[in-house]
Amino acid sequence: MAASSSWIRNFLILLVLVHRVFGACKNCYTVSRASYYGTVTNDLGSPNGSCGYGSFGQSLNGGDVSAASSKLYRSGMGCGACYQVRCGNEDLCSDDGVKVVVTDMGEGDGTDLIMTRHAFSQLGLDQSSSDQLLAMGTVTVLYRRVSCVYTGKNLMVKIDESSNNPSYLAFLFYYQAGSKDISAVNVCETRNLECKLRTQTRGALWEVVIPPKGSLSIRLLVTDSDSGQEQWITFANVIPTNWQPGALYDSGIQLDS
Q1: What is the largest CA-CA distance in the chain?
Q2: What pLDDT, on the 0 to 100 scale, is given for residue 45?
Q3: Distance CA 61, CA 83 (A)
Q4: Which whole-number Å values give the CA distances from 90 to 87, 124, 129, in the listed order?
């Protein structure tokens, strides 16, 4: 009986260890399906994508961008996230695959990712393999979230064209490096410390009705995608008093530093 109890105890300990190892895997791939934009007009992604990046989303990451399922889009919080994607056919698919940036929402036929044609073709070993994958249209893939890298670029604040100084301010973040999510934003008038806490409105867009006056600082609540740990990051005086719709302002920081 004692030997039996010892065996059961050791077995339970082994189960706990296995759960800890595999349940906390940060770099594991998810098995899913992926497709690509099938028309010429969408060959570099949709300029009217749900994230709100406009034409910027067409050139981001060399055009290797993707629409994401609702699971990855996460009501807009997934906009700008990077994923390493590999397909599962060892006769046709390269080991590295392609890294894509989420710029839109879209899903169908069990897909988590609908990539640009350029990104999708990079899943192949060579041109012949890529042509075969493109002919398939939809393939089984493995993907995982990875850090975005924008060498030599800081996080930028883009004032959306719908903004109207001084009554309405809407903005997006460009070149968001790393693998953290922006979960909340404080817009603060620097001199009097008047702040307005904003939550994400639609896609990657943040908006403030009747924003604080004067030069504006921004505080970001960023959440680590692996641990869930939260941290406030502040960059001062990034938006000038006379901000203009369409303008692009340098925050001077990056989220992966």
Answers
A1: 81
A2: 56
A3: 12
A4: 8, 9, 10
Q: Look at the chain and count its residues.
A: 257
Q: Taking the complete model, does pTM exceed 0.70, yes or no?
A: yes
Residue-wise pLDDT for 13-52, tens only, equals 334 443 444 444 657 999 999 999 876 555 555 567 899 9
Burial letters 68-101, b for 16+ CB under 10 A, else e: bbeebbbebbbbbbbbbbbbebeebbbeebbbbb
Q: What is the 3-state secondary structure (H, E, C) of 50-93?
A: CCCCCCHHHHHHHHCEEEECHHHHHHHCCCCCEEEEEECCCCCE
What digits encode the pLDDT tens for the residues 50-84?
999 988 988 899 999 999 999 999 999 999 999 99
Q: In what order do the strands lie in the sheet with 216-224?
A: 194-198, 180-189, 216-224, 230-239
Q: How far apart are CA 246 and CA 218, in angstroms?
A: 18
DSSP-derived secondary structure letter, 118: H
Q: Cα–Cα distances in Å, from 3 out to 11, 77, 221?
A: 12, 53, 53
Residue type, 175: Y
- Domains of the chain are 27-146 (2.40.40.10), 156-250 (2.60.40.760)
Over residues 129-146, the mean pLDDT reads 96
* DSSP tag of 175: S
Q: Which residues pair with 137 in a beta bridge?
A: none
What tokens were used for 43? 């060959």
